[in-house]
Amino acid sequence: MQIWVDADACPKVIKDILFRAAQRTNTTLTLVANQPLATPPGPLIRSVQVPAGFDVADNHIVQQLVAGDLVITADIPLAAEVVEKGALALNPRGELYNAETIRQRLAMRNLMEELRSSGEQLGGPSQFNQQDRQRFANTLDRLLAQAK
Questions:
Q1: What is the separation, in whole angstroms, between the first and last Cα of the chain?
Q2: Distance between CA 10 and CA 47 in Å, rounded?
Q3: Distance (Å) of CA 140 to CA 14, 59, 111, 124
Q4: Mean pLDDT by 10 residues, the chain (148 residues)
Q5: pTM
Q6: What CA–CA distance (Å, rounded) separates 96 from 111?
Q7: Order of strands across the sheet with 70-72?
């Protein structure tokens, strides 16, 4: 299993958890973003800078991953593609997407986008908190243990 991170919008605290987990479990971790990223030194952790543009980082991840890999993303369409390819998709709040849940999340995302485009004022996601961080760390640990 390799871990891929849609790193442009990934919270720093989640990246820090991923850095420690990759080193602890000897797992390759690749952060993909359209800007330079600082990563700890070492052979397991690397970053890939892709050109700026709509879904360029997402497309790079989808092209490179293989079934069984883990992708960290809050991007629902990317998560849908990841699940379709037989990989795992985990959002930074600790929600693991599967074939059933991703369809529901995609439908909800599309509905919310349609409402926003019609002028509805909708609030964004709740603020990232300690419970989200803990849920992510617990789910990540479980997935990495299962992969070994």
A1: 9
A2: 13
A3: 10, 23, 29, 25
A4: 95 97 97 94 95 94 97 94 96 92 72 69 74 97 93
A5: 0.86
A6: 21
A7: 45-49, 29-33, 3-6, 70-72, 88-90, 96-97
